[in-house]
Amino acid sequence: MTLFIQNDATGAGAGNLNPDDARISLSIISNLDTGLGQLPFVGNRQEVTYVRTLEGIPPTRLDDLVNTNFNPDYGSGPQTVPIVLVAVLENFTLNDGRSILTIGGTALPPQGSGLAGADLNNTNDCLVIYDTTLNNGNGYCVARDGTGGTLDLEISNPMLLYHELSHASRVVTNSLLALSNICDPSSPEENAAIVDENDIRTQIANTNGETPVLRDPGIHCGGDCGGSTITCCIIASVASGSPLSPEVAAFRSMRDGLLRKSEIGFAFFQSLHHDYYGFSPQVSKLMAQHPALRPLVLEGFVRPLVSILHLIELYALGDGSAKTLGEQFIADHIDRESGAMRLNMICLAHDVLNGDDAELTDVQRELARLLYPALESEHLKWSLVEPFQIYQSALHTYLNGCATEQIGKQMYEAICSWAGRMPLDDVWASLAISELQGELEILENLLLHTPETRASFRDRLQKKFDDVTAVEIALRNKESKFGGNE
Amino acid sequence: MTKSQQKPHAEEPPGMRGSIESMNEIDDGTELTIRLHNPLDRAIHYISDVRAMIFDTHTRRLRVQLSEQGLEMPPGGIAMKPRFRQIDPRSKAETKVRLPKTIMKLSNVPSPTGDILFEEHAITEADEIVLEIGWADTPYYGDPRKKSLDTSPISSWEQQSLRITFTPHSKLEN
Questions:
Q1: Interhelix angle for A386-399 vs A336-353, to 10°?
Q2: Closest Cα to residue A203, out of A31, A353, A374?
Q3: Which residues contact A335 (CB under 8 A, 6 or more apart)?
Q4: Distance (Å) from the C-alpha of residue A2 to the closest C-alpha of chain B?
Q5: Nearest-CA distance from B115 to chain A in Å?
Q6: Which one of A280, A330, A412, B102 has the fewest CB atoms closer than 10 angstroms to its CB?
């Protein structure tokens, strides 16, 4: 027999565990099956028994766990591995000090098994430890499926326990999947446990006559319920009034979905964040003190930037042609009147950005002073100021009545030229040849569309890193691939 | 209220400064009031929730980590993101850290009978409290690169760790 409930914390005194919660949660997992029971205490443990009378995925899985003798071979011969449920309170820590509140629960493989987490366990059991206080009353909120990562779905104790039992089922069969330290995307092991967790969510919802709301298996991150842990783009968040606004979502999606996945992109954003967060909290504070600034920042900076970055995304990932860019720009600006209003706001924003203070109010002048670093930073200039100017120019051309083709051609040429001026971070010098070639390939496919832009970019790269062998070889390989003449 | 003394750490790196102003007993534990100072021209972002607590029975030193340094991530229910707070440039701020009355941990000592052993330590047993706060001058963003799978993105984010060593006043009196 395999499944036990730990009743008392040996060495720590009574009242430090909550075994009643384990009994209740198991009962809910069994769908209140009357076949679930416990034997009398033996020492500090109570063995769980189960003569299943109900169908359903969670009862069946529980049946397997209770009524199978697990004898995995972790490399030194088969060994019996019982599963012990340890229902803890908010003051519990693992033996490296990690608070249970940082993970909600865990399934620790037996010592010596070599599996992830085994060195936190000094017993031969698989320990299923879970917090019964729901994050000390703050709740655990996880990603609701279909929302792209909104952490607003609560997890209850039976769900948490069932999630950990899913891990335990693979620990005791020596089939634990790969784990990683990042929560989005979740590792294969966490993905599998969340898929299982959704079975108990479905069962509980069905029992209550509700529509099941599922957790996103691709995201293992969580946060306190009622408190947003989403961070992105502070100025856009304050200007648009919410960290969940479409503008912020657009920035976040571009940043995490596309740009930061490569080494070069990641390093670029490290520098960009450094420069951006040198002044943006002060801008946000100023907006909070003077709400009248928000429309200027939103309409004059944030929305134009979202628009141009979408067009750049189309340039990078779509067919990227001048025709497509022109057509998309027109489609985004069907209402000429609101386009004209936006241009007025952009012109004011432009004055602020350039510190052209003839007509500015005191608060706008203060904003100008805070934004000044954006003009000094190579990364901010390239990623925010220059795209902003491309957009302003295109909007001006459009409102002057120019044809779609002309707007598209103007934007295409401006974006090509802009792309070739991408700042070169030191990370280029730290990459191996194969990595450099991969990064160049990505960059050329996404941004450097014309032979002239590619040549100019490689030239800059060569000049900046003329004493770095890997850069030299990667560029030489590129040249030989294209015969030095694209 | 127990007024306490803060010992600055000799090798404290430049950046965020802090001291523990008081340590008060509350209903369900102990509350530390921490004064933080950002002398930089940039905002500082720091972890504001307790990620780990380690009580050393030999030295009776309690280490409270608002930091992910050195922590393993076992298979678990939820990867709870830390709570982050921010201090404006050249500003002072106050934050509170709540600790439970006792810490209950899995023992490092193996049980001869094969049973699970636990240890319990009262916060008031500590002769010294060392508070470590991970911070950076940019906010935390997850690292979506594939090669980052093996390293904790939060501990990689932490540029520095502010270390405040603190002796509870009641212990000094004793």
A1: 140
A2: A31
A3: none
A4: 15
A5: 7
A6: A330
Contact A223 B144 (CB under 8 A): no
A-chain residue closest to B147, CA distance:
A263
Contact A30, A49 (CB under 8 A): no
Interface test with B, best of A96, A129, A285 (most B CBs within 10 A): A96
Task: Kindly tell me if the per-residue pLDDT of B7 is higher than 70.
Answer: no
pLDDT above 70 covers what percent of chain B? 84
H or E element at residue B121 = strand B118-122
Distance CA A347, CA A350 (A): 5
Q: Across the interface, do A91 and B101 touch by the CB < 8 Å criterion?
A: yes
Nearest to A316 by CA among A443, A182, A188, A175: A443
Q: What angle do CA A395, A396, A400 make, to 5 degrees?
A: 115
Q: Which CA distances in Å does B154 have to A22, A277, B89, B102, B157? A: 32, 18, 22, 27, 5
Mean pLDDT score across all residues of chain B: 84
The residues that bridge with A31 in the sheet, in sequence order, are none
Going from N- to C-terminal start, the domains of chain B cover: 5-166
Q: Which of B44, B105, B125 to probe the A interface (max A CBs under 10 A)? A: B105
**Residues A300, A349 contacting (CB under 8 angstroms):** yes
* DSSP state for residue A293 in the 8-state scheme: H
- A-B CB pairs within 8 A amount to 248
- A304: preceding bond cis by omega (within 30 degrees): no
DSSP state letter for A187: P
Distance CA A249, CA A242 (A): 10
Task: Supply A95's token pair.
Answer: 């033996």
Under 8 Å between Cβ of A83 and A50: no
Rounded CA separation A159/A139 (Å):
13
Burial B31-46 (b: 16+ CB within 10 A, else e): ebbbbbbbebebbbbb
Round to whole Å and give the CA distance between B157 and B41.
Answer: 19
Rounded Cα gap, residues A117 and A103, in angstroms: 13
At B104-128, the pLDDT tens digits run: 999 888 777 778 889 999 999 999 9
Task: Specify whether the CB–CB gap between A189 and A217 falls below 8 A.
Answer: no
Residue B144: C-alpha distances to residues A188, A194, A265, A423 (Å): 15, 20, 11, 21
Distance CA B161, CA B135 (A): 6
Residue spans of chain A under pLDDT 70:
1, 226-232, 241-244, 253-261, 356-358, 480-486
B8 vs B105: CA distance, rounded Å: 29
Put simply, whether the predicted model's pTM sits higher than 0.80 gets the answer no
**Coil vs helix vs strand at A144:** strand
CA angle B45, B48, B51 (to 5 degrees): 120
